Amino acid sequence: MIGSVFYFSISPEEERKVRANDREYNEKFQYANNCIMTSKYNIITFLPVNLFEQFQEVANTYFLFLLILQLIPQISSLSWFTTIVPLVLVLSITAVKDATDDYFRHKSDNQVNNRQSQVLINGTLQNEKWMNVRVGDIIRLENNQFVAADLLLLSSSEPHGLCYIETAELDGETNMKVRQSLPVTSELGDPNSLAQFDGEVICEPPNNKLDRFCGTLYWRENKYGLSNQNMLLRGCVLRNTESCYGLVIFAGPDTKLMQNSGRTKFKRTSIDRLMNTLVLWIFGFLVCMGVILAIGNAVWEKEVGFLFQSYLPWDPPVDNFLFSAFLAFWSYVIILNTVVPISLYVSVEVIRLGHSYFINWDRRMFCQRRNTPAEARTTTLNEELGQVEYIFSDKTGTLTQNIMTFNKCSINGHAYGEWEMSRAQRLDFSFNPLADRDFCFYDQNLLDSVKLGEPAVHEFFRLLSLCHTVMSEEKSEGELMYKAQSPDEGALVTAARNFGFVFRSRTPSTVTVQELGRSVTYALLAILDFNNIRKRMSVIVRNPEGKIRLYCKGADTLLFERLHPCNHDLMNVTSDHLNEYAADGLRTLVLAYRDLSEQQWEDWAERRRSAERAADYREDRLAAAYEEIEQDMMLLGATAIEDKLQEGVPETIAILSLANIKIWVLTGDKQETAVNIGYSCKMLTDDMSEVFIINGHTVQRVREELSGEQGGWHPQQEEKPQQGSPPAPALPSLLDSISGEYALVISGHSLAHALEADMEREFLDTACACKAVICCRVTPLQKALVVELVKKHKKAVTLAIGDGANDVSMIKTAHIGVGISGQEGIQAVLASDYSFSQFRFLQRLLLVHGRWSYLRMCRFLCYFFYKNFAFTMVHFWFGFFCGFSAQTVYDQYFITLYNIVYTSLPVLAMGIFDQDVPEQRSLEYPKLYEPGQLNLLFNKREFFICIAQGIYTSVVLFCVPYGVLSQATRNDGIPLADYQTFAVTVATSLVIVVSVQIALDTGYWTAINHFFVWGSLGAYFTILFAMHSNILFSIFPNQFHFFGSAQNTLIQPVVWLTIALATVVCIVPVLAFRFLKLDLKPQLSDTVGLSVF
Amino acid sequence: MKSQQAANRPDNTAFTQQRLPAWQPMLSAHFVIPGFLLIGMAFIGIGVALYITSQNIQVLEKDYTGTGQYTACSECADMQTIPCICNVTFSLTTLFTGPVFLYYGLSNYYQNYRKYQVSRDDVQLWGDVTKSPGDACAPYQYIDNKPIAPCGSIANSMFNDTFSLYQIINGTMKLVPLDGKGIAWWTDYNIKFRNPSAQGSLQDAFNGTMKPVNWSKPAYELNPSDMNDNGFLNQDFLVWMRTAALPDFQKLYRRITSGDYALGLPPGDYVLQIEYNYAVKDFGRKKVVFSNVTWMGGKNEFLGVAYIVVGSLCLVMSVVMLVVYAKYKFADENA
């Protein structure tokens, strides 16, 4: 959003040209300077801009339109303030909120813009505020300073032009990353030589991709390719580096940090959508009523009003009854406008905000260990938490702790790490002074093999100590700290460390390893990095003897394809081991190496360089180059890492399934691992009739498997579709009847086919018929696609929960995204709507908070529509008795205050605090969650019931006073049928009836509810008497026409008898209906509630 | 570290943890069924009392619109002769218990029409005739650029039939004294309406204003017999200005409280002499009503009947609920 605001005037930038130390040249392009502005308003623009924004809301515009109507004297049936007071109130509540938000943005902007940085100007370093830094400036950074803009690293105080950065603010990863300047510029160490630097960078336009950069440096007639490796992005912090110099490439709003800070797509709940539809219907209803009353007015004016002219002449513009009817229509639109509740949206926001705070405040969702409370990052989705039907969960870090321990390994066909619990003895690594004391391993054989010097074992650990991207930090001699991007890598490097292959330090071109006490420095020739598609990483190193070797570790499926054929036997053995490990729920990696000759390396290095220099498709070309070299590898073995389940996961899953929530696990792990985790967290059970496994590689195969699963219930087997016909009844009911006993496991490559347009339906039907679904080996995109599929076809509320960057797309796609703040940075949390640190909090979020939110919101909406209809429709009935003249029944002050003072707070209190059953019960009886999923508490039917009740109430409120007062007189003979008495009687009855109704609807009377309910009634009578008092009248005799009415009316017993009658007639049917419903058709929540008390 | 942990940990209060002590009412049978029973009985009791009281109230209505050929005041209905006086006769066989109230009633008369209802100026009626009357009074705002006092449609259309009641005793007509004091709201008479104040007479105070178009006399001459009952404080005017909520309404005209008639109208023949000035026959009707009141006011059958009906329904509902409840209760216990 920020980006778009800044660019609308200029044609989009196609490439960026920056010349160092040449402000004049750079100014030609009018690049944004380094001043950021995340705030939306300033003091002058706040009012117009904020109002403009607010009036983009249909409801607000509607009320503005009403206000304009009210200013036309011929139409105005109500004073202008009846609309403007609520409107101003609503607008100011929102405005205050916006202003507060913006104030804090201003504050942080100011703070950031005024940070100091050292800029090289005319050959000397000068202190400048961040906001004065320009594109093309060279700035100097010192240790622990924030990077001021996106910089091209030119040189650093460290050797080789290296520097280290921490990117926590950017992507949440706390490990250090290394950046390196181009060799040609790394020599420019002092301000003087830097001032002479006049290179020109041509690069891509500003974008939001944090992990790539593509550009070229032209300097002294030479071209140098630039990549993300040379960039220091704004938001990073310089670490372990004394100082460095950088050239500003992107500044201010163009920086990747700012480009990423755009708001994500605004999510709306189904209740929101329903509410909007209903408000439209109410508009329609309003117009209908207006038309009916206008027709009535036409008839009346023709039949009666025409003759009544001797006492009430038509206004000059009215010359016939049709025109009068036209005006009456608009007049009625004005007085009936209260059916469209102006305060609805604001009240809904307030309630949701309250619910969000309850989530933030919940101590039972606070994780002691991580010191993180749950956080509702979006405050607009709460009630949808009570309607979730599908949960899509990541596995690693979500169901599991993502704390990896090196558990087993298979080296050269020999399995290590089997041990019996009873005889378990922790290995003693005291021979190794650099060992990590927290590391545990129990198989003595492995240590013996290391000590005996088995070459395969040595090579295995050598690989583990070389092939990774871990950074080491050695605070003092022998105290090594590893900083790993993924916990798996950390676990593997630590394992190698304890077994005597200690990774000690790295430079961009070397890795130093302490091999069984002997320090060996390998020349690091290339890193073929990891990504989700390659699912492997390799390094190419040259050992001190000069031999070049490629070490590779990665997923078994991919690596086995790339092994030398001679590994066939070993591969089979290892594969068996892998299957065992996976069946134990361990995460596996396969390790392999390849010897390269000098020639091979040279050739390949050349191909890689050309790929790197390529202007377009650079990444594809690089991937292809990597692919080329990772061939004919020799298998070393496999590792198995354990990732323990988080606390309470099986219980949570069990409870959520009892609540009829279907849980799909989408994981990148291999099938066996996933299935095993499925068992250990009780998603899959031995009671299940069958676990279908689909892992065909072709469209045909997958289709067969899918239809096979659907068609018949064949004995446990994989990939063998059954030709048999399905046993009796029709398919859908069959699918329904069997649900709960079957599970589906599908792998990524099958999923790719299953998600194609012609098969997705079939896949979805099968998957939804199963109680548990596990998708393994899926890519982040596939995760999102699966969620999208369910969202599209099932009309069900989906929730995605995950912790890593690979879950972000799924979290953004699902109706509700939950981020686990765990080991893998905070990207998932940043993209999420709710975040907490333990999977088990999910049950509380859904079953307690979600359920309550939904219940409260539904009760709130029902009552809200009811009270407005009860209030407004009285005008409609009165229309038939006042010549359809748009005369209101109530005093205009009553109309102004009804929605904002007399009836707003009790229902808000109910909407925020109500509880039907105590929280323990919602966890004990997960079935209580079902009404939300089935959308039973507020839907179109419920809406019509509320409306009907409101209309019934309005009829009673009109007819009872009509019947009584039309004939009644006071005991001093004065008739009670005057307009003001009637108005006060109806208004008082209305306030009492709706108060009794909210009292009935409130299930949980806290002190606050009492205060609001009684307070509202008290406020009504206080304000009534105040408005009708002679003090106000004597000040504004023309405004307070109702002077004396309250005193004269409410002293009459007949009036109170009328109010009592109206109240009983309104409430008794509701009471009887609810009582009978409780007895005849009790809901689970009723019985659970009863059993408590 | 400890303190930092405490900082992030949410407060353990009843409010934040949603554990506020609360009363959770349930619709239990022990509460609802007796409740219905109680309401039912109370309502029937009140209803019967109201009904009986209402039955004891005597009401006598006489329509005098005069639209039919031989109906009362038909001779005046064409509004040709002004003033036209007509008589409505009636006879009482029993004592019409006092105090008796005399009302006039208009039907299909829309005092509650919005334009009509707002067509007044409360500032003017509060005694300020010097200010120009509010626009709401149009078209009865000015005559010849002089403000009308009282302005507006309500005042202009003030009911101006007058009634005098005679008892016929042995062929002679004995005037029944009618009391026109205190027929308007106390607050209206004492606070909401004020006569303009000026040195000298009330007439001087109204100097520079015009009388409403339909009025035959200016405001300060509304009641020639009582100097204090004039101007904006004229009781009939106050009664008229308190507009009716519904198109069929009655307004209090006089009380019969004094003289020989303090205890009521004794049996006999009566003549109500009407000065017929007010034209309604194009759209509605007019009538006179004699009525007496009890503690609960005038005759009001609706209230009593409604109470009895609602009370009975509550009783029926309580029985139904009891049956349903018992049935399900026992069904549960058997199961």
TrEMBL record, chain A:
Grouped into one coarse class, the protein's main location is membrane
Q: Which key words tag this protein in UniProt?
A: ATP-binding, Lipid transport, Magnesium, Membrane, Metal-binding, Nucleotide-binding, Translocase, Transmembrane, Transmembrane helix, Transport
What's the Enzyme Commission number for this chain?
Answer: 7.6.2.1
Q: What class of enzyme is it?
A: translocase
Membrane topology type, per the record?
Answer: Multi-pass membrane protein
Give the record's GO biological process terms.
Answer: Golgi organization; phospholipid translocation
Q: Which reaction does it catalyse?
A: ATP + H2O + phospholipidSide 1 = ADP + phosphate + phospholipidSide 2
Residues that coordinate or bind Mg(2+): D394, T396, D803, D807
The cellular location(s) given in this protein's UniProt record come to: Endomembrane system; Membrane
- The UniProt record lists the P-type ATPase N-terminal domain at 18-84
Q: Name one GO molecular function term.
A: ATP binding
**PROSITE patterns attached here?**
ATPASE_E1_E2
Domain (P-type ATPase C-terminal) spans 829-1082
Superkingdom of source: Eukaryota
Q: Which InterPro entries match?
A: ATPase_P-typ_cyto_dom_N (IPR023299), ATPase_P-typ_P_site (IPR018303), ATPase_P-typ_TM_dom_sf (IPR023298), ATPase_P-typ_transduc_dom_A_sf (IPR008250), HAD-like_sf (IPR036412), HAD_sf (IPR023214), P-type_ATPase_IV (IPR006539), P-type_ATPase_N (IPR032631)
**UniProt similarity note:** Belongs to the cation transport ATPase (P-type) (TC 3.A.3) family. Type IV subfamily.
**Name listed for the protein in its UniProt record:** Phospholipid-transporting ATPase
- To which species is this protein native? Paramormyrops kingsleyae
